[in-house]
Amino acid sequence: MGRVRWLLAACPCIMTKIAAPNTAALGERQAMPSKETNELLTRVEGDAPMGRMLRQHHWVPAVRAAKLVADGAPAHVRLFGRDYVAFRATDGRVGLLDEACPHRRASLLLARNEDCALTCIFHGWKIGVDGTLLDTPTQFHRKEAFAASVKVRRYPVREAGGLVWVWLGDDGEAPPFPEFEFTQLPPENIVVASAQIDCNWIQGLEAALDPVHVGILHSSFIGSGRGYLGLTSAATPYFQVLPKDFGLQVAALRPLGDGTTYVRVTSYVMPYYGFTPPNDPKLADRTVLIAVPVDDTHTRQFFVRYNLFGSPIDNHFAETVEASDPDNYTPFPGGKDAVWGQDREAMKNGHFTGFPRNIFSEDMVVQVSMGPITDRSEEHLSESDIGIVHGRRLLIEAACAFQEGKHPVGAPEGIDYRSVRAPTGLIKGGTDWQAELSTLEDAPTPEPSLAGEPG
């Protein structure tokens, strides 16, 4: 497939043009969003249009399912600048409530978790997993009527794919749940870790839209040549962006000089998800990166490694998760003054970045280094950033449509999430890479009966 020129459709918020892939410099491009557009893209708290759109039209991964133990400690969940408490009841059901007790607003993180309810330690108010106010010891007359008059917000939850998901919308019914194939799998087929990082969610998300950084930033991890991943630095790539109903795919194509081309495709699923290709499609270990807004300046990133046939074959990720806190997977000792714990001695000994702990720490440290909310109006985007430009445009279009009372692009209605994968492989020159790679994606699709039901 020859190299092509892409002309992006005009978007008043972002950009109109990107140069041909073989252009040495992009001096004429107008790719950077304005400061105002950057605000629309990144802000999620309160009445910010992006946050309201995400809460209303999408389920949100909230917490690792394994973190919640029946009658165990409640877990703090912060999303879109608001605080919640999640807990697993005596019978295994999961509840998610506002963190503040409705009586005097003491934190329900302190509550007793027993008898399928949280009991506030301040005055004994007891709230069931379904949000029912079961007891108000401070009310002595007409207790039932009083309890019925107190509004307790209980949010719809669903447990699937090693995660607890929540819908935080204000109006109507919850949207369709994103039935990704990993949400259909049993727990033994999935490894999940997460980490909170000190930057805006878009900085975390855009790693999934940037195929070139893999062969540079992660060169010390991929240099062993496991599977195809070592080829990411083997040749100069050119790119294609494929619009999809779920978002888009970014294909990096690298001619290897022997008549074959290495193709690596990343699938961006609106609004939070980046599916990255397996090292080897025959092993079928797959990875999903999920960037969830905690607030305007913090992100909770979930890392999901799954295998359709059994336990993940690549044990490195599972072993590093087991050896660390799976909810603080990549802690950085110190901040900028300590250069986030960068190991210069490791760099002298050959490690490219000085962050040898795991591959995800390299992503997160550069994201944090950009600042809480990076000023995209000061960027100088280059050829490989075409996926980032497209992804930003999709999100801006969705937020603008929501503001206008229209159905936003990327909303889950009618999307076949179970078909989403990120293919990779070697193809012969001149062949249709989409058709060629589809023959490698022959793993069976799991049935939805294994998925959790809404709660």
UniProtKB/TrEMBL annotation:
The keyword Iron-sulfur applies. One of its GO terms (molecular function) is metal ion binding. Residues 61-166 form the Rieske domain. InterPro entries: Cholesterol_7-desaturase, LigXa_C, Rieske_2Fe-2S, Rieske_2Fe-2S_sf. It comes from the Bacteria. Gene3D superfamilies: Naphthalene 1,2-dioxygenase Alpha Subunit, Chain A, domain 1, Rieske [2Fe-2S] iron-sulphur domain. Keywords: 2Fe-2S, Iron, Iron-sulfur, Metal-binding, Oxidoreductase. Transmembrane segments: none annotated. Signal peptide: none annotated. The keyword Metal-binding applies. PANTHER family: BLR4922 PROTEIN, IRON-SULFUR DOMAIN CONTAINING PROTEIN. This is Rieske domain-containing protein. It comes from Sphingopyxis lindanitolerans.
